[in-house]
Amino acid sequence: MTSVLGFRDPVADAIGLLRPRTVIGPTLRAGGEWALRFDTFLHVRIGGLVRGTCWLILEGHDPVLLREGDTFMLGNPPPYVLASTLDASPRPAEPVWRGAEGGSVRIGSESEEDLYLCVGHIAFDDANATLLTDLLPPLVIVRAADPHGTQLAQLIDLLAIEVGIAAAGGPLVQNHLAQILLVHMLRAHAAQTDRPTGWLGALNEDGIGTALRAVHADVAHSWSLKELAELSHMSRSAFAQTFKTHVGVPPLEYLIQWRMSLARDALARDTMSISELARSTGYRSESAFSTAFSRVVGSSPAQFRNEARQPPSPATNRE
User: What is the pLDDT of residue 315?
Assistant: First the structure.
């Protein structure tokens, strides 16, 4: 029987657990010489150029010239700068962003405007954020000429239009477009990287990908190494080694970690009792589930649920 907690696609599973919260815009229209410095942000920043060119200057990386139709994604980025030229003196972006009007920020006169950029932030629930952020490099660039570039450019165009109009349902449309953009960026990253880390790259490996999808389709099943190896058409030793090479942890450890990710989410939302959660994640008893949860998470399920019920204090609330 398929678990009530599991989905059938690991990417959909992960993004669903992350509970993404998106903030899109304002769009940036700029001309002349300009530079904006952005502070660090958890967890993902994503954007693209509707028109023009600009430099993206990320600490620890060579500057990158972005052109019309290019899309970028920053994973847990350090401070970075967007600028018209490499020698332009940057100013803080936050006060400029606060001065947005009609969903847009303008730098320079309208007559000299040569840049039109759409950028957004995607934040995740902290409890499971590492499911994705640990897999992302600090910077992913998808060029307009890339096989995925056309689709991404179209999504950026749609986002920019939505930000610029005050239509009914705008925030909902922006949120869904941003999530679609994130998935397409993940696909593009996997395609342009010889061996992406973690489950994202493993999905492209026929044998390992089959095993991963099986685990996600029925997380409550008592999977054995032998069963998963047979699904992958490998010997147990070859499967175990290949899985760890691609995903970073042994197969059964991945299963436990995924079960605990599902459990953290269910406990935080208080959607079922601990005994129900134990059965849904493949444990025959509440005590066995509690032992596994405490080992992975560092607190008992009851403690975790009680702490999740507490409202965040103003000092720790980042929303």
Answer: 44
Where are the strands (E) in 95-188, listed by range? 104-107, 113-123, 139-142
Alpha-carbon gap, residue 199 to 197, rounded angstroms: 7
CA separation for the pair 245, 240 (Å, rounded): 9
Asked whether the beta carbons of 98 and 92 are under 8 A apart, the reply is no
Q: What is the pLDDT of residue 7?
A: 40
CA distance 7 to 187: 19
Do 135 and 196 form a contact (C-beta atoms < 8 A)?
A: yes
Which residue ranges form the domains of the chain, and what is each CATH number? Answer: 20-192 (2.60.120.280), 200-309 (1.10.10.60)
Shortest CA distance to 104 belongs to which of 159, 59, 175? 159
* Nearest CA among 1, 216, 233, 27 for reference residue 113: 27
Residue 18 near residue 132 (C-beta atoms within 8 A): yes
Place of tokens 């959660």: 277
Q: 251-269 and 236-247 helices cross at what angle (nearest 10)? A: 50
Q: What is the mean pLDDT of each run of 10 residues along the chain (319 residues)?
A: 48 80 86 91 88 92 94 89 94 91 84 84 81 79 91 90 80 86 84 63 76 88 94 93 87 92 88 91 93 93 87 48
Q: How far is CA 311 from CA 45, 126, 148, 315, in A?
A: 26, 14, 41, 11
252 token code pair: 């059964």
